[in-house]
Amino acid sequence: MAKRKFIYLYALIIFAITVVLGTVPDYNWDMLPYMSIVQKMDGVSSFDQIHETTYSTAQKNLPPKKYKDLVDARDPYRKKMAEDANAFKTQLSFFDIKPVYLIIIFLFYKLGISLTYATVLPSLISFFFINLLSYFWYRKFNLSFKNLIAVLLVACAISIPLATRSNPDTLACLFLLIGSYLFLETNKLFLCVLFLILSILTRPENVIFSFLLFGIILVGKWKKKIPFYISVGYLLIMAAIYFLIMRNTDYPGWNNLFYHAFIDNTANPLIKQTITVQQYLKVIRENLLNLKGIIAIVGLIILSAFVFFFRNHSQDKNSLYVFFYVIVVFWTLIKTLLFPMTALRFIIPPILLLSVVVVKKYESLMSEKHNKAA
Q1: Per DSSP, which regions of the chain are E strands?
Q2: Which of 183, 230, 184, 239 lies closest to 208 in space, CA to CA?
Q3: What is the pLDDT of residue 1?
Q4: Quick one: which of 206, 141, 151, 201 has its CA closest to 350?
Q5: By C-alpha distance, which of 21, 23, 66, 357 is closest to 160?
Q6: 197: closest CA among 246, 238, 243, 168?
Q7: Mean pLDDT of the chain
Q8: Are the CB atoms for 196 and 179 separated by under 8 Å?
Q9: 318 pLDDT above the threshold of 70
Q10: According to the model, what pLDDT value does residue 2 have?
């Protein structure tokens, strides 16, 4: 009964935090392309009109300081996007590959939510459910009430920066967390795959995580024996969905994305770019060997140290959670090499997943010690 009352109280607290965060939406620049694509979905054909409506709506609904930041004349890229509709149109190819997020924005917009706020609502809702999922996940561990409160507070604090973003990252994080929970704590592989597919449809690069996760099944380390043809079938479905997204949009490819993000963001993304080894290494050096990058690396090392300390002092040295930890680390490294950015929205999802592993291994070690003492 006490636990049941606590979940209601906890849900109420998280809801209150979500409401408060909803009063201070971030409205990052990515909001503008998503607003434009939603207008195209709504049947507006003239892109000059879409461009004008996008910026005028943002100017109307955003605080003056925030809008000024989005069109900052000191930023050549943002200035050009605000003034040149054709240049802005070329940017949409980076954003229209996230159909689930776009459909949700469209639905909110058609329900009467302002187009600007409709880009934030999926993140706010996802933040609420991420923290609700954290409760049900951590509750499965044999934690004291005090420790449960502590890990829930940490999970909430970690996820707050995702709550007010005008992009699909929080929604994709929610789908990855649900898929991982189903993979680790249940035998419901079909539901797990369903949420992994939703994560791919929200951020296509999540296909990397999905494939790595299925590596655990293919090497026979999952809790249940799955026929090889079923595993391969699921992998083919996820791969097909990824390639369908790429094929049915104007996505310019990794080369152009990397070039646009790190080398020259004013270059036309529809013109094929070439990246030299020297350019790539320079980007890696400038984006990872800085304060934020070093903090992220040190954080990963600390989490790894905790996991392997608990593992080495536990009898359960090859648990599913340990293999999952390795998968998350590999996924983080691959993502970082492909797109070396240390923004919080890229770091938080793996931190949330790795934190679960740390708590799980701690709980296992404490349970073994308790059983020995008894």
Answers
A1: none
A2: 239
A3: 46
A4: 206
A5: 21
A6: 238
A7: 90
A8: yes
A9: no
A10: 60
The residue assigned the tokens 């291994």 is 361
142 with 367: CB under 8 angstroms?
Answer: yes
Query: Among 121, 111, 96, 110, which Cα is nearest to 202's?
Result: 96
Q: Is 159 within 8 Å of 126 (Cβ atoms)?
A: no
DSSP 233-284: HHHHHHHHHHHHHHHTS----HHHHHHHHHT-TTS-TTS-----HHHHHHHH
- The H or E element that residue 31 is part of is helix 31-41
**Tell me: the pLDDT tens digits for 1-20?**
466 688 899 999 999 999 99
pLDDT in tens, 222-244: 988 899 999 999 999 999 999 99
Cβ atoms 95, 35 nearer than 8 A: no
- Measured CA to CA, the distance from residue 95 to residue 128 in angstroms comes to 24
Diameter of the chain measured on Cα atoms: 74
pTM of the full predicted structure? 0.93
With tokens 């509709």, the residue in question is: 85
Secondary-structure breakdown of the chain: helix, strand, coil percentages, each rounded to the nearest 5 = 75, 0, 25
* Long-range contact pairs involving 268-274 (C-beta distance under 8 Å, separation at least 24): 268/87, 268/90, 269/90, 269/91, 269/93, 269/94, 270/90, 270/93
The structure tokens listed for 260 are 């646009």
Look up residue 75 and give its DSSP letter.
S
Query: Could you give the CA distance from residue 336 to residue 289 in angstroms, rounded to a whole number?
Result: 12
Nearest CA among 286, 278, 246 for reference residue 262: 286
**Tokens, residue 140:** 């499965």
Q: At what angle do helices 291-312 and 320-338 cross, to 10 degrees?
A: 160
Side chain identity at residue 65, one-letter code: K
Positive or negative: CA dihedral 328, 334, 338, 343: positive
